[in-house]
Each structure stands twice: as structure tokens, then as C-alpha cells.
Amino acid sequence: MNKKSLNRLAWKRFKRDRISFIALIFIICLILLSVFAYLFIPDKTPMTNQMHIELSTLPPKTTVEFLQINTHHQENTRSFFQSLFFGEELTYKQVPIQEYSIKGDRVFYKTFDSELEREYRGNFEITKKTFWFGTDKFGRDLLSRLIYGSRISLSIGFISVIISLFIGILLGSIAGYYRGFIDDIIMWIINVFWSIPTLLMVIAITLALGKGFWQVFVAVGLTMWVEVARIVRGQVISVRELEYIEATKVLAYNSKRIIFKHILPNVMAPVIVIAASNFATAILIESGLSFLGIGVQPPAPSWGGMIKDHYAYIIMNKAYLAIIPGFAIMTLVLTFMLLGNGLRDAFDVKNNL
Q1: How many CB atoms are closer than 10 A to CB 116?
Q2: Is the four-CA dihedral 225, 230, 235, 239 of positive or negative sign?
């Protein structure tokens, strides 16, 4: 049975595993939701950071009326695509109000933080907004920040896995193919990295590179390549002794062509499985870093940062502020683990025979 037939059979086996296939559909839908987040979230400001302190920790499904004051001196200078991916610049001011009355071109209203009646004359309108998941301690829409936070988690997981795969596949294939002194040096490096606790290494790299969004990418990616390198090395060692590899050597193919065209395409199945597992690991590490305050920095919403901001509310009848992002982390990690298990079973050679 050739390689294409094995891959086709593996895909059929994967589709028959309903749990893993549902996990794949869920991940695809979440990726689309995170990429086009601003089409769905109520708060369309950059990083969903519109604050109303007076609306702090509102319960879910709360509807609030706003006095929307148009500010003509401000214009949205962002293009459609910039607004789609990075949010819109507000061209109005919103004031949350408890009650109001309109007389001609004037509106009399009371704000949430005062019982004094105020007056505004000019260009205005009254709007309503429903906070389906409530608001956080800064009065920001929790649903918007939760959806935008999925973009942070998925992007960090994706970039970190790409970095780990690039380093791991490169070093693992070189070590497994050349063996000897090169293999000893690379394995020594792998063992040194392997001996350091992952979270401790991530914290050290993050502190060395500085706090920030891109620094987390690099820090997490540089800690997950070790397992990839060990797996690739073992697979390459077993494949390099097969007859078709010996035939390529007889035909005087260079080492680069043998490794990248004849060996690596035949050892990628276990790498795909470990990549799904590393994706889940990257999400957990990023959440942990944000919870410790050295990951993605405010005002960017991160699920770990949201838990950090609200874990004290668990004993104050506002536990959902920390439970909702925690449940999101758990669901996404579980989904990637189920996907990894499905890929492992699908690519199992014994099951394909």
C-alpha cells in the first residue's frame, strides 16, 4: 500500500471517529470566529477596551441604555480591512444612563454614578446594549473580550507550534541522519533543554526578551521543540536504513534532497500528532504566563489575564468572571487533546493495515 493510500485510509478512519471530527470542526469554527471577531463582538473598539467604570461587574444579560453623543470632530481614519481585523476608532461618546427624558433638542438624564439630573443639548441619540456575559471590573463587555481572547490564544499556539516544528524537525532530522558526533552534540543540547522545567524556562526567556505579545510567541516556541526533535530523530533513524533510502544514496542524491524529499515526508504522521498536543500545551503556558503577569500585557485581553483580574471575585458571588475564561481554556485544551488522540489513532500503521 503506497503513501497516498495510507493517508486516504487514515483520513477515513479519522472521519469515522466522531468525537475527534467534531473537535476539528469546533477548532475550525473558533479560528474563523477569532479571525473575524469584530463582525460578531458588541465592543468594536481596538482590543475591546471600551471602559465604563460605573458599569463594573454587571450580571449577565444586563441591558443598559446609553446617551450617545456624536463627536463630528473625530473621524474613523481606518479602512474597512483595518476595522475588520483591528477594530474601529470611536466617533462618538457613550454615557450610561439610568433614566432620561427628551424635550425638544435637549435630553435630561441621570448617570449610573450620580442621582443628579443633567442636561445635554446637541446631536445625540439613545441606544441600548445588552451585556450577555456581564461586564468585568472595569466595566468592559466580557463577551467581547472573551471572543477576542480566543484570537490571542490561538495565534500564540499557532506561531509557537510553527517555531517548535521548525527547530525540532531541523535538528531532529540532522541528528538522526548523520548520527555520530553531530548526533551527540544535538542530543546533548536536547537533554540540557529537557532537564529544565518548561514553565521555569518560559519565564526566564520572557524576562530576558521582555514582556509583550511577540515575546510570548518566541518564549513558548523555544521550549516545545525538544519533544519534536526527539520524535523526528527516532523516526529518521528507523527510516534511513530502509532500502529506498539506500537506493537514493546509490543514485548519488545529496543529503539535503534525501532528508527533505524522501525521509521527512514519511515521518510526518507522529509530528502532526505531537503538534496538536503542543498546541494545547502552548495555550496552557500562555494562560499561566498571563495569570502571573508576564504574558500578554493589558489592554490586550487574554484568558489567563481575565482569570488573574477576577479570581478574587470567586468568593464574592461573582465567580462567573473567572469561571467563564477558565472554562474557555479548558474547552479549547480538551478539544486539541481529543484532536490529537484522533490523529494518533488515524495514523497508527497497525490500524491501517
Answers
A1: 7
A2: positive
Contacts with 314 (C-beta within 8 Å, 6 or more apart), sequence order: 322, 323
Contacts with 61 (C-beta within 8 Å, 6 or more apart), sequence order: 130, 131, 132, 134
pLDDT digits (tens, 9 = 90+) for 106-146: 889 998 878 888 888 888 888 999 999 999 999 999 999 99
**pTM metric for this prediction:** 0.87
**124-131: strand order across its sheet:** 118-121, 106-111, 92-103, 62-70, 124-131
Neighbours of 316 (CB within 10 A): 10
Higher pLDDT, 248 or 323: 323
**Burial of residue 315, with CB atoms counted within 10 A of its CB: 0-12 exposed, 13-18 middle, 19 or more buried:** exposed
Residue-wise pLDDT tens digits, 18-59: 888 889 899 999 999 999 999 999 998 989 999 999 999 999
Q: Which of 349, 345, 328 is nearest to 142 (CA)?
A: 328
